[in-house]
Design goal:
Elements: E1 2-3, E2 8-12, E3 18-23, H1 26-51, H2 59-84, H3 90-94, E4 97-101, H4 109-117, H5 119-122, H6 129-137, H7 144-149, E5 151-155, H8 164-168, H9 179-188, H10 191-202, H11 209-226, H12 231-234, H13 239-251, H14 256-264
Antiparallel strand pairs: 1-2, 2-3, 3-5, 4-5
């Protein structure tokens, strides 16, 4: 794992696959926090108004409950949102930020709790001064809560859709000779599985030779288990070409001449 000069964290897996993560800077994180504080303030105000009715019974008790509930909301907001929105609060989602494990692993609940409990330390003495200084001094733009929880905050810029005609054009797709099996692919391959196959094709040149062969071997084996095409359609093609043919079927509409054949084949 290393950080580039452009505030990008590069995480390399044991298989040789490198993921590039854009780190969120202090300014962007402060803006996200400011949005969250507006939400927390609105929620605290609404709950405080409701609890104010307790003042009819005891003014001291009502004030104590308002302070206690306000504290719980400030702590619980980040924990609940990052738990159920997979590392995002409303402010982070609006600015396309996300909390994740520093090694690229699954974000654990205890990490979410730790980073949010230490938020009050980062906010000292005011306006996130301690946290901002820590972000500037850290190689991975981490505040103290991130150091303790081993988390980072990354940016998720909007990704443009790839040009499928350019990515998939130029090679004969033998699987299209059997439109009824191609239709079965559409039924049995989930949206998540289709995206994994597409991303593998897009990033294939970023992999070393061995990792590339292993990755496409695993994806092709799984796709073959879902729909079995006749041997003559797959004979002599590599696993990568098989995955490419499947992606071509899943993401690109049938050619007019193939549609005519498909309509003639009984289902």
């Amino acid at each position: 794992m290393r950080r580039s000069k452009t505030s990008t964290l590069l995480v390399q897996t044991p298989e040789g696959i490198v993921f590039s993560l854009m780190l969120a800077g202090p300014v962007t994180r402060f803006l996200a926090w400011a949005m969250d504080m507006v939400c927390i303030g609105a929620l605290s105000g609404a709950v405080g108004s409701a609890l104010g009715l307790l003042g009819l019974l005891s003014a001291d008790f009502a004030r104590g409950m308002i302070v206690l509930v306000g504290f719980v909301i400030q702590i619980g907001y980040g924990i609940v949102m990052e738990r159920f929105w997979l590392g995002q609060t409303l402010g982070k989602r609006l600015l396309r930020l996300r909390v994740m494990d520093a090694q690229g692993l699954h974000l654990q609940f205890n990490q979410i709790v730790i980073r949010n409990l230490l938020r009050f330390v980062d906010m000292l003495p005011a306006f996130y001064l301690v946290g901002g200084i820590a972000c500037l001094a850290s190689r991975r733009a981490q505040r103290l809560g991130d150091f303790a929880a081993n988390t980072i905050v990354v940016r998720n810029p909007k990704i443009q859709e790839p040009d499928l005609d350019q990515l998939l054009a130029g090679k004969f797709n033998s699987l299209r000779e059997y439109p009824h099996l191609a239709a079965r692919l559409h039924q049995r391959v989930s949206a998540g599985e289709a995206r994994v196959a597409l991303r593998a094709l897009i990033r294939r040149d970023e992999l070393d030779a061995r990792a590339r062969v292993e990755l496409f071997g695993e994806i092709a084996a799984h796709l073959r288990s879902l729909v079995e095409f006749p041997p003559e359609t797959t004979e002599g093609i590599t696993d990568e070409q098989y995955v490419r043919n499947v992606v071509d079927i899943l993401f690109r509409p049938q050619r007019p001449e193939r549609q005519e054949i498909s309509q003639a084949v009984p289902r």
